[in-house]
Amino acid sequence: MRYISTRGKCPAQNFEQVLLTGLAPDGGLYIPEQVPQVSAEQLHAWKDLGYAELAFEIIRLYVADCMPEEDLRAIIDDTYAVFSHPEVAPLQQLGDNEYVLELFHGPTLAFKDFALQLLGRLLDYFLARRQKHVAILGATSGDTGSAALEGCRHCEWVDMYILYPHNRVSEVQRRQMTTVPGDNVNSIAIEGNFDDCQNIVKQAFADQGFLPAGYQLVAVNSINFSRIMAQIVYYFYAALKITGGEKPVSFSVPTGNFGDIYAGYLAKKMGLPVDRLIIATNKNDILHRFISSNQYNLGNLEPSLSPSMDIMVSSNFERFLFDLFEGNTEQVTAFVTGLGRNAQQVTDAQWQFAKDIFDSCRVDDDTTCNTISEVFAANGYLLDPHTATGVKAARVCCADNPNPVVCLATAHPAKFADAITRAGLKTPALPPHLADLMEREERMTVLPAELSAVTGYIKKTL
Ligand SMILES: *Cc1c(COP(=O)(O)O)cnc(C)c1O
Predict the structure, then answer these.
(1) Domain enclosing residue 97, as ranges
(2) Ligand 1 pocket test: which of 410, 415, 418 has the largest number of ligand atoms within 8 Å of its C-beta?
(3) I need a labelling partner for 54 at 20 to 30 A (CA). Which of 47, 167, 285, 315 fits?
(4) Domains identified in the chain, total number
(5) Alpha carbon distance 212, 196 (integer Å)
(6) Ligand 1 pocket test, candidate residues 260, 261, 288, 387, most atoms within 8 A of CB
């Protein structure tokens, strides 16, 4: 399998190279040159597989030319064994045709564990083979940081530096980053906001001269294709559980950077019968504005009750734009790089192409809270605020649709107490493996919002 850049200005790479790079050197994102196809017979043969077995069948289509299959199988078995639920991604039924897919049974209680637990293991595997050290550097406003630290803390060949805005993440989120044990774990509180963190990371990637010889930086945000790949699996898993792959299923996805829903799009492209893909946004609704009115322009970043979806631009949308512009990389580049200056539009035919695949819905904070209370009253089931946006969006977009709809539950409700309290409900306890989170010892470094402070710290500690 070869991967090409959405901007078309650098050579194709294999999976190992894509995993170790993240962003393509021309500023684009890697996508598979050809999406592997799954036949109806193959789907049928997969319908009773357990999660890890299914993950192996799907992921090997993307990775197998880079490693022996028995090694991949061992890594995948090991990855999904750390999830606390025997089914890994269990389904809950809320109504006749409405399901919730629980993706929060990993170590950090958010769906990001599905990809980052695998990424850490794959990274260490390839680095051990190359006898090479890397440093992961990332900025986070919440869930990515803890999932990355948990996913890579056992890695022998990886040191991690996760920047987050000092005093601007929730206590649970901070503690999930600052209490991860391990000599290779560095949680860095930056005296600034999330943009400051991200700018420092961008500058460090652009000039890696400060690193000791032989080292490189690796990006683990959702621009890294390996994360998308791991997320394709649960779309197959849910659809096969509900219909055996015999009839179409819709998915409603709480969306920020468009990584998770892009994985659903790839599942559909691979041959899984998928009906609608519903983009649920909060008030940071750039994608909803595009789908509903063919206007793609920057808004202001506004804090919401579903903070992991608070974005101005969805970076992975560029991967879909590659298909929308039928592989014309000049058009992709112009669309993405022109965004800062003006609102972008596509032709009616292109807009229609997008609307044939995606629906969208914007769910504000009040509606999010109402949805949490409604579902609790009707089903005794507690949604986290991100998941609630997805459930609401499914109800709006699929009201007359006879096919089942699966709402992805992207986080555990115990992680986001504010919204639960505002919905008038009692916050649930953290699951057993995190029950003592508030008593654990924290380790962090506070640094000013300056590139040199961060690069100096990395140099000193590597
Ligand atoms: C990251 C995250 C999202 C958004 O996922 P994207 O892939 O960025 O669209 C939604 N919900 C939760 C809980 C998250 O952590």
Answers:
(1) 87-109+225-422
(2) 410
(3) 315
(4) 1
(5) 25
(6) 260
